[in-house]
Amino acid sequence: MTFRQARYDEPLIWEIREPAGTDPVELEGVPAGLRRKAPLAWPELSELELARHFTRLSQMNFGIETAFYPLGSCTMKYNPRVAELLARRDALLGAHPAQPEETVQGLLELLYELEGALGKITGLPHVSLQIAAGAHGEFIALLMTRAYFEERGETERTEVLLPDTAHGTNPASASMAGFTPRELATDRGLIRARALREELGPRTAAFMLTNPNTAGLFEEEILEIADEVHQAGAILYYDGANLNGILGKTHPGKMGFDVAHLNLHKTFGTPHGGGGPGDGALCAGERLAPYLPVPRIKREGDRFRWDYDFPRSIGKVKTAFGNVGLLVRAYVFLLAHGESGLTAVTERAVLNANYLARRLGELLPRPFSPLVKHEFLLSGAPLKERGVRTLDLAKRLLDEGVHAPTVYFPALVEEALMVEPPETESKRELDLFFEAFRRSVQDTPENLHAAPQNLSVGRVDEVKAARELLLSWKDLRRRSSPAPEG
Ligand SMILES: *Cc1c(COP(=O)(O)O)cnc(C)c1O
After folding, report:
1. Which of 410, 319, 329 is nearest to 367 (CA)?
2. Domain range spanning residue 317?
3. Tens digits of per-residue pLDDT, 9-25?
4. Residue with CA at minimum distance from ligand 1 atom 2
5. Within a domain: 355
6. Of 73, 211, 253, 466, which has the maximum CB count within 10 A?
7. Residue 209: inside a domain, yes or no?
């Protein structure tokens, strides 16, 4: 038994049939100036042809409902149907961000309760749901950090420190917010408080940390780290993109963090990647709370309203509701699990990670400590002896009908692979993945170099793809018959 799926090579509808010059449909009430004047250059297909075309296209896609999706630092977990159904209710789909508060009391109450729950989960009680994604949360929190130091007159704090295990968005957000990011070397994947002390100083604005970190390791010296950062007057930032390693067990508040972002689209069962927009939450302790975006939801008796009265706030950063469909999904996820269910999520995710780490560790070396939280690293370095690289292995896994793990991150591990098996995977699926991985590692260098061979598209030229962006049929056509110059 494998995950392998059928191979399709579905043409574009323009390739199935030449454009026919469909006459424009006469729509009543459309002003004359807005009506289409020329026939539409679209191919005409029968309804069945069209249905088959799109069905086949959908099968060329890969999603969490196709097979295991072990992308580390991404938490690709099942998106429960109940949350999908509730997020698609007409009342919600028809709501408008500028609707009067009295007409969206139920939604405001839901968001208020979600804020409360996330405040409790993080131990940082002041919450904004306006954040569009993880990286947006980092950026906003750093703008809040700036505002905090500007108000205190500490404008010499221009540096943001982060470990060499940090997610790439951390230094990018720091630069975008006007700080200079500086990377610190970890010791066997961990930050040592004593070494950190040497690096902290009057120029440090913040230290950004993920815990457990992207190597799946829990920072053993986290309390000492928090003390050092605070003694230096800096902000301790928690990158909480993935909470699968600690949910219900501990929280960033207890570890001494000042502010945290959460990726609702990773931990809280809402779609991400190709499945839809992301959504985040920003949770702050007392130090940064006054700077959170406005408006914030205020409860007055049994009524809820938007409150703009936070004079030190950095302002509005997105529509007040945030990506509200994802907020509803996250709320349903929390209600469906309950407190003990959330703890069970972590226990199951950590068990899955350790089980799979132990099994895959028979095939490739693991750079750090044997026990991990929600994810783990492998090194594909020994494959180099056979002229094979981690990239080849990742492509070969696609031929097994499974998604590849995250590769070449973090950079401190040679030929890194990062695997994350969330709580929604069963032992059977993990064992299937192990077998797919074993077949891939043991395959011939020729097959590994040629992979993927079972997909509609073979190995793409990534440099060319990045340099020559052809994103639509029109781009392609323009390129094959370039417009005359001049
Ligand atoms: C995914 C991730 C981010 C970025 O989140 P986006 O929603 O993709 O912007 C930041 N940090 C870590 C550790 C992550 O895994």
Report:
1. 410
2. 81-336
3. 788 888 888 887 777 77
4. 241
5. no
6. 73
7. yes
CATH number, domain with residue 137: 3.40.640.10
352 within ligand 1 shell (Cβ under 6 A): no
219 and 191 in contact (C-beta within 8 Å)?
yes
Residue 102 domain-assigned (yes or no): yes
Please give the number of the atom of ligand 1 that sits closest to the Cα of 166: 13
Pocket test for ligand 1, best of 73, 170, 214 (most atoms within 8 A of CB): 73
Ligand 1, residues 176, 219, 239: which to mutate, most atoms within 8 A of Cβ?
A: 239
242 lines ligand 1 (CB under 6 A): yes
The 10s digit of each residue's pLDDT in 400-423 is 999 999 999 999 999 999 999 999
Q: Is-above-0.85 flag for pTM? A: yes
- In a domain, residue 318? The reply is yes
